[in-house]
Each structure stands twice: as structure tokens, then as C-alpha cells.
Amino acid sequence: MDEKKIIELIDMYFDGELKKGGESFLFTQLAGSTEGRKYFRQISRIMSVVEESAEEFPEELDERILRSVSRLPQKKAGFFRKHNIPAIISYAVVLIMLLISGYILVQINYYRARIEDLSGRMERQSETIEMLYNSLPGVEVRAASGNEIIIKPSL
Amino acid sequence: MHLSAECGNNLNRENNQIIEFTLLFNKYKKRLYNYVLKMCSDRMLSDDIVQDVFLKLYKNLDLIVSRESILFWLFKSARNELYGLYRNTKLQKLYIQTEDFDELEKEDIYSLPDDIELKDLKELVMKELDKINPDQKEAFILKEYSGLSYREIASLTGSDEELVKSRLYKVRQKLIKRISKHVQ
Q1: pLDDT tens-digit profile of B12-56?
Q2: Contacts with A78 from chain B: Cβ below 8 Å
Q3: What is the percent of chain A with per-residue pLDDT over 90, rounded to a whole number?
Q4: Hey, which of A147, A152, B69, B183 has its CA 20 to 30 A from A87?
Q5: Within chain A, what is the greatest distance between any pair of CA atoms?
């Protein structure tokens, strides 16, 4: 394994970005790499100094921030913060859908009544027409000529 | 009756918000403070920036939907404040002090003894960081002092993870060259 790759792995190790199993692989590689071991030692020293140079959060700033927060005026919850907007929208949609379905139901009932009325009227009219046909006198059909048709067998 | 119930709800909401804020504040304060302080190297200024950022967080806490994004939100706000100040020339030294390390290498500016104390070493580290390119310095501070991952640094600085790795490597190389001989 080349030095560049080992150095990259060492950096990742100190950054806490080495995946599981990567550590054992790195240390196996380090055992055979003088340059890698040297870099590891140098980085380790630098990191310990850097770690030492991290500052603690100042107590007075801590107090100052927490005091400012408690002193902040209480926010008046606006309409949008106070209410659950998606729920309100859902309720509104449901209400509109209910109204529309009610309207459609009324319209369907109205048309059904009209259709029933029309079909009743049509039935009555067809009965009347049939009755009129039946009330006419009977028709007699007579032949115009009295010739008999003789059929002879052709033997 | 209805009014008192509403008042009670508001009080509860406020108390919950303060508790939640305090938990978040204690969780992130040191990481954020170190980032701002190391970036601007001015205690008073960093105190003000950190205070502003945390107050802003408190005011916007109920607008931040995902609690996982609070870390990103905090650092992004602090970064914006820092760069806003820089733009207003208050922090121009951040860049003015920065020189190319290769140029610096030509000079032998340090004649410190090999056995300098830890306090001096810390100062040395800070001095060195001030001389490093701001992008590299920022990546290093975010990694070492704020404990952000490569991915978080990349998304915060608008770069990619490979670039972050390369910046960190360069800073370490510079620090090794400069101070490793003094570190026991």
C-alpha cells in the first residue's frame, strides 16, 4: 500500500471517519510503514496540542445568554403558529366535499323523480294508443280475381 | 375560562421552549464558541456573535422543523455573521493576515526553543492558523474544534468532501512543518 493512502487513512482515523474494521487494517499497514508511523506520531502530537487549545465556554457569556433569553418578551402566537394549518385545510376540504355531495344527491333525486314521471306518462300514452287501435272496426281483405290456381304435377 | 386556558397553554409552550433551548444551548455552545473564536480571534466579538446566534435560535426555534438540522443552522448563522462582519471590513484582518505558506516557508520566522511550554504551543498553533488560507483554516477549525464530520463541513462551506479532506491534510502538513519540532 502506498504512503499516500496510509496518510489518508491516518487522517481519517484522527477525524473519526474511519469505517468499522478500518482501524485494524490501518494498524496492520502501519506496522510495515516507517513513514506512516512517523506521520502518525506527528499528527498525534499536533492533535493533542490542538485539543488542549480548545477554549471552555465562558461562564459570564453563558449567564448573559440565558438571562437575555428569559428577558425576551413572550411571543404572541400568531394565527399560523397557533393553529395547525394542514388540519384546518383538511377540515375545509372535507366540508366542501360534503356540501358538494349533498348538492349532487339532491340533484340526482330531482332527476330520478322527473324520469319516473316521464316514464309513467309514456306508459299511459302507449296504453291510450293501444286502446285507440283496438277501438277501430275490423278489416276484411278480399281477393280481386276469382281465378283458381291449378297446380299440376309434372311427371 | 377559555382565556385562562389559553394563557396556561402559552405559558406551557414558553416553558417547553426555554427547556428545549437550554438543552440545545448546552449541547452546542462550546463547539460554536470555539468555531467563532478561532475564526475571528477576538473574544468580545466572538461573545457577541455567539450571543446573537443563540438568541436568533431561541426566536426561531419553533420554525426549525427538523431538530437534526439545528447544528447546521447554528453554524450557518454564525458563519453568515462572521462573513457579514468581514464584508463590513471589521474582520478584514482575517484575510489580511493570511499569507501563502509556501512564501512563509522561505523565511525562518521562528527561533523558538525546542522545549517551549504548552501555553506557548497553543499560541503557536493559533498564530499558525491565522496565517493559513481562510478556507483551509475554517475546515480545520470546524473539524478539530467543532467536531463536524466531512459531510457537515462540506455542506456548510458549500464544497465537497474530497476538498474538505484535502484542506485538512494541507493544514496538518503546515502545522507539522511549523510546530512538530517543538512538541514533545
Answers
A1: 767 778 888 899 999 999 999 999 998 888 889 999 999 999 999
A2: none
A3: 34
A4: B69
A5: 141
pLDDT per residue as tens digits for the range B80-136? 998 888 777 655 555 555 544 444 444 444 444 545 566 677 778 888 888 888 889
| Residues in chain B, total | 184
Residues A6/A29, Cβ–Cβ less than 8 Å: yes
Quote the ipTM score.
0.73
Whether the per-residue pLDDT at A121 is higher than 60: the answer is yes
Q: Are B48 and B40 in contact (CB under 8 A)?
A: no
Distance, in Å, from the CA atom of A53 to the CA atom of B179, rounded to the nearest integer, reads 14
Work out the pLDDT band at B66, boundaries 50, 70, 90. confident
Contact with chain B for residue A72, Cβ under 8 A: yes
Task: For residue B37, give the C-alpha cell.
Answer: 473564536
Name residues whose C-beta falls within 8 Å of residue B62's C-beta, 6 or more positions apart in sequence. Answer: A81, B17
pLDDT of residue A48: 85
Chain B residues with at least one Cβ partner in A under 8 Å:
10, 13-14, 18, 21-22, 25, 29-30, 33-34, 37, 47, 50-51, 54-55, 58-59, 62, 118, 121-122, 125-126, 143-145, 149-150, 165, 168-169, 172, 175-176, 179-180, 183-184
Q: Is A15 left (phi over 0), alpha (psi -120 to 50) or beta?
A: alpha
Distance CA B137, CA A133 (A): 109
Nearest-angstrom CA–CA distance, B50 and B81: 9
Domain definitions of chain A by residue range: 3-56, 85-135
